Amino acid sequence: MNIPNLLTVLRVLLIPVFVLLFYLPFSWSPLAVSAVFAFAAATDWLDGYLARVLQQSTPFGAFLDPVADKLIVAVALVLLVEAHHNLWLTLPAIIIISREIVVSALREWMAEIGARAQVAVSDLGKWKTAAQMLALVILLAIPPQFSVWVGIGYGLLYISAALTLLSMAQYLRAAWPHLSITPEKK
Fold this sequence. Notes:
Blueprint: H1 3-23, H2 29-53, H3 59-84, H4 87-112, H5 123-141, H6 148-179
C-alpha cells in the first residue's frame, strides 16, 4: 500500500461519511457535505499526481481509482436528485451516470481485446470532470431552492452532461472499428 492507493481508499471510505452528513438536520450539513466532496475530488487529482511523480502506479490503484471516482460522483448525483426532485437536475444526472456505465463497460471490453489504449482518458474527459466536480461542490453546499448559485451549479452540470456525451461519442468512435467487426463464419 502506498500513498496514492491510500488516498484512493480514503475516497471510498469518505462515501458513507458524505451520505451521513447529507442527511444530518443541521444548518452546517450542506457545507460539510460539500467540503468532504471537494476534499475527495482533490484527492482524486492528488493520488494520480503522486502516483506519476513518485512512480508508484500499481494495478490496484489503476483498478480502484476510476471506481472510487464513479462511486462518489454517482452517490452525489443520486443525493442531489432526491433533494432537488426536478427534471432539470435529474436529466443531466441520468446522462452522466449512464455515460459512466457505458464507458466503463467499453473500457473493460477494449482491455479484454487488447485495445485499451484506444479508449484512454482524453482532455475532453478531464474538462468534463472539472465542470462536474465544480457543479457538485456548488450544488451540495447550498439548499435546493433556486438561487443564482443553484443556477450556476445547474449550468455547470449541463456543461458537464454535454461534455459527457461528446466524450462518450469520442470513445465510441475510437472503439467502433473493434465493435463493428463481423464474426468469422465457420
